[in-house]
User: Which sequence fits this backbone?
């Protein structure tokens, strides 16, 4: 079954999703989308650039044993 792990408040360094948001923001900034359609396209491209290795690395960085 699943094991619930409660994180201490204000600890983004222990939460892998924060590393995802950081990378997405960096990618989107570099794509310089200036219209709604360009932003939608940039988000889709940025999501495609997130790899399995990125995700595993973020979890390991946060101390998860996977």
Assistant:
């Amino acid at each position: 079954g699943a094991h619930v792990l409660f994180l201490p408040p204000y600890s983004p360094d222990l939460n892998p999703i924060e590393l995802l948001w950081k990378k997405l923001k960096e990618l989107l900034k570099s794509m310089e989308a200036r219209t709604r359609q360009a932003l939608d396209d940039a988000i889709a491209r940025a999501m495609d650039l997130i790899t399995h290795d990125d995700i595993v690395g973020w979890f390991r960085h946060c101390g998860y044993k996977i």
Remarks:
- Residues 16-31 form the longest helix (16 residues).
- The chain has one domain: 12-61.
- The mean pLDDT is 94.
